[in-house]
Amino acid sequence: MDPVKESRQPPKPTAVVTGATQGIGRVLADEFAKHGHTLLLVARNEANLEKAAASIAAAYGVSVHYAACDLATREGCDRVADALDQNGLYCESLVNNAAMMTAGFFQDQDHDALLRTIDLNLRATIDLTRRFLPGMIARGAGGVLNVSSVEGFMPVPYQATYAATKAAMISWSRALAYEVMGTGVRVCTVAPGPVVTDIHANAGSENSRYMLYYPQMAPEVLAEASYRRFMRGNWVILEGWLNKIAAVAVRFVPGFFLIPTSGWFFQVRDADGNPQLPKPLEHPDAPEADRHKK
Ligand SMILES: NC(=O)c1ccc[n+]([C@@H]2O[C@H](COP(=O)([O-])OP(=O)(O)OC[C@H]3O[C@@H](n4cnc5c(N)ncnc54)[C@H](OP(=O)(O)O)[C@@H]3O)[C@@H](O)[C@H]2O)c1
Q: Ligand 1 centre from 94 Cα, in Å?
């Protein structure tokens, strides 16, 4: 196409889906494509992005772009905005889905991984939303779908930091949903229970009791319900009867019962079910132990 004519074309509305190469993000991208949205997929691994983009474009006949970047960094979020500009797109729907999970005793978890969890799960969500929400409000259309977790409704020992990012996301998302009322823009949060993806094994929690006793949902079921209810404008999306009960029940269960029960479900275990024990720590007075350094 004539580059001058091309540059005059108005930007195309696009659904930006973060963490779109696997798991829930991948099927959410399918769901948006199925409904005719142009897509910008975001993740770190470029080869996986290329594969996902080609497969979605072939299956649904929509334009699929991608941006390879680490959203745990500010530069990664800049890259998403640049990719939209470079491809003549604007963000009509933002799906804040990319996240990482860490599990185990807090003091034994990798210091950098804990900080990256906050940066990816929370800071990138707020950063991307701050970039794209004003445009949505100005146009009076579009929305932000925040993928949180049912863990965000309660304290979760052994996944304390991950669950806290999800709790913050739910609180923040509901507050924003109120602020944008009447603008034509939707802000929603979906709070899934366990879904069949790699996130638990990557965190080392695949043998925890919640994985054994809590029913796991197929990502496709979650994605279909999330898209439908996002378009309808639900503030909080809970799919599955147990998740609905859990999200309401935790408000009435006293902490002295709720937190140990949560700990019983979430403690990291080996394949034989033995609980992980905390690693022995150096006594603070030992000369080789400097507890204030990483
Ligand atoms: N699975 C569950 O049981 C469950 C339950 C409740 C809520 N959730 C939430 O659902 C969402 C998706 O979870 P999932 O289980 O589908 O996760 P997943 O299978 O681990 O997929 C994570 C996706 O995020 C991308 N990603 C990871 N780190 C990134 C980074 N720093 N920058 C950019 N992209 C990054 C990954 O691609 P790259 O590695 O290439 O970057 C991948 O595409 C998360 O918000 C999670 O908290 C999941």
A: 15
Assess whether the C-beta atom of 27 lies below 6 angstroms from ligand 1. Answer: no
pLDDT, tens only, 215-239: 999 999 999 999 999 999 999 999 9
pLDDT at 1: 44
- What was the pLDDT predicted at 177? 98
- Residue 244 confidence (pLDDT) above 50: yes
DSSP calls for 206-255: TTSHHHHHSPPBPHHHHHHHHHHHHHHT-SEE--SHHHHHHHHHTTTS-H
169 lines ligand 1 (CB under 6 A): no
Catalytic-residue membership of 213 = no
pTM for the structure as a whole: 0.95
- Domain positions in the chain: 9-266
Residue type, 147: V
Fold of 9-266: Rossmann fold (3.40.50)
Q: Find the radius of gyration of the CA atoms of the chain.
A: 20
